[in-house]
Amino acid sequence: MALVSTFYFSRIIGNKVYAQSGGTIGKLKDLIADVDFVRPKIVAVMLSTSKGVITVDFSCFTIEKIKGQYRLECSELNEYKQDEKKNFYLTKNILDMQIIDMDGRKLVRVNDLKLAILANETYLIAADVGVEGLLRRLGVAKPLKEMLKPIGIALPSHLILWDDVETIGFGHAGIRLSKDYSNLEKLHPSDLADIIEDMDRDTQIAVLSSMDEEKAADVLEELEPGIQKSVLENLPLDKAADLLEKMPADEAADILDELREDKVEELLKEMEEEASDDIRELMGYSEKSVGSIMTTDYISFNENETVEHTIKELRRLKPESDTIYYLYIVNSFGKLVATVSLRDIVVSEPETKLNQIMNSKILYVLDEDNIESLNEIITKYSLLAIPVVNSEEEMIGVVIINDVVHNLLKNRRKRT
Amino acid sequence: MTTKAKKSRFLRNLMIFLAILGPGIITGSVDNDVGGITTYSVAGARYGYELLWVLIPAFIVLLIVQEMNARMGIVTGKGLADLIRENAGVKVTFFIFVGLLLADILNTTTEFAGVAGSMQIFGVSKYISVPLVAIAVWALVVKGTYRVAEKIFLVFSVALLSYIVSAMMGHPNWGEVGNALIKPHMQFDFEYITMIITIIGTTIAPWMQFYMQSAVIEKGLKLKDYKYTLLDVFIGCATTVVVAFFIMVACASTLHTNGVQINDAKDAAQALKPFAGELASQVFAFGLFVASIFAAVILPVATAFYVCEAFGFEAGIDKTWKEAPQFYWLYTAIIAIGAGIILIPNAPLVKISLLSQEINGILLPAVLICMMLIINKKDVMGEYINKRFTNIIGWTTITILVSLSMILLVTSLF
Which of B90, B223, B313 is the best substitution to test chain A (most A C-beta atoms within 10 A)? Predict the structure, then answer.
């Protein structure tokens, strides 16, 4: 007999459970864990007995290792009252299911679980997602290891600590380990998008719905077009509309272009008018025109404003980093007359008027211009952004270099 | 309702249908691969019209099974491999996927045999055609043009209709054909029963179930699309069976009547020449060529994908080699082994083809049992579990398949 400190779940599942008297009670079917601890603590055992399945308290349970095998003993059969909100099942909910490896930032399948006994309590400490875990489940890990040892090959084993694990949907049962996916929000939107692309549809919806809207919109923006479409079609209408509102208008218009017309109409109606008007306008442009990739979020000022006022305004608007470098001067008729750089504003005295520091030699493109010509201008003058005007020379948007790169990549992907 | 409103509603429904169209029809077309064409040709040549009736129960079972796959895909949004792994555990998964891998490697071999055979009819040596096709197929996936290729092949699968032409050129006796179709003929000898199992086994190949379900998911179908999906599945199954019917008729009306025995689809194409003319033979060979390339493109990548899915390795053609090494190595190995076997002089191709059908025969009931158990789980399917009628047909099919396989196993031992 040896004291057990850590063990794999697969080694005890299906094992006989003995009473103190030595008689058999039944077989171990599942373990129930409680999430209200730092690591999930095992609180109950499901046993299949001759009289059916019973759930008993784990406190009267002991695990010993005898001659390489695990012996399970249960001194008292106290019935355990389950709490749906904070309990989950190791076999039913975790084993063989997919989880997110937060460290490796990908979706993996659980082959085995590692548990540890600390001060008389048993905790779930890691998920085994490697080949060794798979072979252990099939009961051939040990002999295979022995066989491969002489030729110097080790089975690839891969444990993920439970701290780095995020569990995802539990199917129709409707229970989840943690109430939200707050952990996931620590990941970069692009990484998160890669993970979500590998999930099944219901999980994609569950994860995106539970996230903070700003973050969810960022992730939605990064998803592949096909998945964006499926997500928008499956999310509740109001939620989908909220996410689209949070996205830059040009990105939202791109996604909506892929959807069925009646769905687009429904979504636009659900959105706030200000946002949906912008999107409608952008969707009117042909795919090859500058209008289709421009964004209508830009910052403009009147030439008579002071630098002080401008800076105050910028503090209030808190523009994104890619729109703040170029500020545009528009006259009272909405016509684009000049640009001001952020640098000039920062280095000028507060009472300076914008028309003293503005640059009226401006480069701009027309909304109906071909994207090809836009690409040329942007590269030729090494611009980060360029204003877009309509045929009346009224300013209607800007194209940021990011959008140009995106568009180039998209076209390249389409060709392959 | 005015006629105009009616018409516009009809048009709208038609548009929705065309948008949803796909999974069932693609699956139906891939189903008529080299294994299928071979089986139907041999059945027609050996037994004439006698086995035509088998296509009717095969059609019903195919329809029921594919409907279940479509429904599971729509409701759960998960692939069949995922569902089996999550619900049946590692051991069952291991058994099924090792079987699937083995059967599909052999199936891939027969697809390349189809390429070799059909190009031989046009006078191209297999030592040229097989390596070229193998490299082209491999590059298609690794270089990432698979999606486009899949669509092109769907258009090409119209070439399968060439079998109707071949059948017509043989001037079949339609009276006899109709008679054989509605009056089942049963014969209790080893070869006849083997032929029946092989026909059913090749029509409802296990890997098709996985393919169908993924196709539904990839298309992003939802419950409200269900009735259109059903129609799509119906058309797909009908395509499979109709093509099978014409292949059997083509071989029955010419080869069987003249007592010509054949071993594979290439033989059939060759043997057609004296009876139905050079053109009929070439049309038959062309159909075979398209079918074998189509399946050689889809089968290895699909197999690699399901195996990785079940065991939790990263997989997918949009991943790079570095991200999903297991997937790409498996894929490469399946093609290399499949094409490699064909290039061995005097490889026992008929035996390989039979072996793959036998493994499929054992695998099919196992996959079907898993499907039946999963689709009846409320946890997984919610209110969309099987209706009683589907359950009865499902379990009956499984019982019949298992007992037929058992009979075969026992008789082959003695």
Answer: B90
